[in-house]
Fold:
Amino acid sequence: MAWGADPPPLALDLGSGGGVPGLPLALAWPLTEWVLVDAGERRAEFLGQAVAELGLGERVGVVRRRAEELGRDPAQRGRYPLVTARSFGSPAVTAECAAPLLAIGGRLIVSEPPDATGHRWPAAALAGLGLEPERLIRLQAGYQVLRQVAPCPERFPRRSGVPAKRPLF
Structure:
């Protein structure tokens, strides 16, 4: 498994969309509190309904907000031992939006395309965000695991939309 440890007490799913992987992991890890983040109104509404129907409302919250805004919120920075992302954005965008949210020692686990080799995550560029590649996992699906080894600099994430328009790598 990509996590490889006891479930964390708190986790965040970035760009939750249809709820994968956040909702299945919330069901599998009954002691973990989850925050599902999506900027889209319809997607956030769907997530809220799914959380209610699954009876997860006491420990799974839905936040309708851009990831860049959430990453600049002092109450959210450095808070999460685990951030997950599936189809959120390019590696540069995903890393820049996730790194500010991760606690030191926390992990970012990102789904990877079938042919991924790990070269999409350059160590030198990630170091500027306080991240380092930990491992690439190949099972039926692929996952890149990154670890937050230093605080993310305060200048990240940049304003909404900027990470996608001017990626760091």
User: Anything to note?
Assistant: The first helix runs from residue 22 to 28. Residues 88-100+112-125+136-169 form one domain. Strands lie at 10-14, 33-38, 60-64, 80-85, 102-112, 131-138, 142-148.
